[in-house]
Fold each of these.
Amino acid sequence: MRKKIPTRILRLLGSKGTMEILLELQESPKHFNELAESVRVSQRPISPRTLNRRLRELESAHLVSREVLPSRPPRTLYRISEKGTKTLNRVLGLQQ
């Protein structure tokens, strides 16, 4: 029997920008500004404020991990987690 995706995760996946963020992070880990640039030019652009909110929600759901790099000024690197990859693949599988 397959595990169900929790309703909270499904709601988050349906939120503006979430799929674009996960797809970008699936390609490679990215800094906030790199993500902001890539989702800004996407079909559904999102503001930096919304991007920040989505990243926090994705991190809280354990779909994305966040690493603060020791530099001046501090830089943050985001990467998709194993759970995020599995969830993304399951959602993309529904499209087929």
Note: The radius of gyration is 13 Å.
Amino acid sequence: MKYQILPLQDFTVLKNDMVKDASYFVLCQLEDSLGGANHAITIHNNMIFDGNEEVPLASNKPNLDHCCESLGNGDVTWKKVYKAYRYSNIM
């Protein structure tokens, strides 16, 4: 498979319809409330795929918070997407 990779500027994950589209997946580097940007997730078809989780999570603020706090500090919450890249299949 070949993919077209598009960097996304100012990507707002909870307000962008792109994450609901099954034809894309978006790789997101998360920034937490302490300013750390050391965790990445993939969002596809409005679901969060996190390597620390056994099953996909619905794309919402509580689950983005959970993705950030799962790194060991329960007081940390999700702040924003630090970097994002959209991948689309090239036929």
Note: The helical segments are 61-69.
